Amino acid sequence: MNKTAISLILGVTLSAALSACGGKTSANEKNFAVTVGQYFDKKGDLCLDPVTWPVDVYETDLRQQKLYPDGVAGRMAALEAAGLARGEDMELPGTFVDGKPNGLKVKVRRYTMTAAAQPYLRADAKKQPRLCWGRKSLDKVVRWADPAKVGDHEESSVIYTYTLSNVAAWARKPQVKEAFPVLGRTVDGERTQKEKLYVKLTPQGWEALGLND
Fold it and tell me: In angstroms, rounded to a whole number, what is the distance separating the alpha carbons of residues 47 and 178?
């Protein structure tokens, strides 16, 4: 075999190897970045916990609001200050005896959602609507675990940082961040908080576990 033929074979072999390394099924930064991005496209909304409206806040909770700003009274007060909820003082029937009210009244502050909150509502199938305040976008893939065989496929985990987009102005208010600590940490820790995403290998490439749940 002459040198030209050997060089041609080596070139084809090297090209095939490089192509394999850059394929969609390879464990590399580019592919995992695509995977995280696809996950955020479908599940990147950042939302508060579901709330069943109206919300009745009792006097006990109101008295403890300063002590527990992230309690129900603090959360509702923060949403009211942000214009997303409206509070009204009212009295409700007290305890019942044999299915009938005993005549006593209980004072509560009842909160209802305002029209200003409607644009922030997101509802998944069979799930209660939530107030969403922003979205995650990939900042960078930091590292990943070596793929390991799990059943009939391979799995890995990807560590990444993210940026925030479409952040509602009310989500950056100090009172809201204090009332919803997870939101506060997320807003204040943008680009510094690392998260982990578990992924699996499919014939089409890497896919986040639970992507279609």
Answer: 15
